[in-house]
Amino acid sequence: MFLRLLFVLLIALNIAVGAWLLLGQDDVHGRSATDPGVPTLKLLSERPAPLASVAPAGSATTSVAAAATAAAPASASTVASTSSTPATPAPVEPPPAPTPPRPTTYTCMALGPFATPIDLRTARSALSSQTARMRSRQEQTTQTTGWWVYLPGGGSRDKALELGRRLAAANVGEYFIVSTGDQSNTISLGLFKDPANARRRRDQVVAAGFPAQMAERTESVPEYWLDVVMADNGHSDWRSRVHGVGSHSTGCF
Hints:
- The structure is a single chain.
- By secondary structure, this protein is α+β, with helices and mostly antiparallel strands.
- It has a domain at 108-224.
- It has helices at 2-23, 26-29, 60-84, 117-126, 157-169, 195-207; strands at residues 106-114, 133-151, 176-177, 187-192, 213-231, 246-249.
- It has a six-stranded antiparallel sheet with strand order 3-4-2-5-1-6.
- The longest helix is centred in the N-terminal third of the chain and has 25 residues, at 60-84.
- It is rod-shaped and about 185 Å long.
- Mean pLDDT is 79; it is low at 53-83.
- Residues 145-212 form the SPOR domain.
- It comes from Dyella solisilvae.
């Protein structure tokens, strides 16, 4: 039984080997190992040897003519290829960068002095559309109220009265004796707005033989100012809106 089974296996193995030898090798049946239409790869060692570089003298002319004939179509092909190449467009220059806007500059001024707070508020309303910033302020200033011509008294009421009688005897009129304040018992000879008139009165009394003197009278009065910040754009003309005051530069705020 075992021998029979071994014999059957050997026969099956021989059949399989024979089928493989007949059907599994392409070279046996002359079939190509590549797909149709695909060129066969060749090794460099399988390429034919190049022609000799030195040709016989008799064939030199023929070779030159053949080379010229071959060069002509090549040149024509090159020209055609060159002419068919599209021209490269000229580079497009980028547009110029926009000019940055010029920074706005400002002028800072003090307008005034205004006589009253009402005048200040009126000017502030008139300039509200032309200024970037505004502020109001009040300052105290010393103002001349006039020029006083006087004759120092003797220190007592009696001496002042005696001096007054002497002025009357010298025909120096228009005087009175101060009775209160720091200048009590002083002989006042007049208060003048114009300093020239005050000097004329003083010289008249001195010519009569009395030591008259002249002094400036001042008082502290308020002044009202408007500080403004205006853009230098040529459209700010504050003088067309505010009249009767001056201006000077001041620090910006």
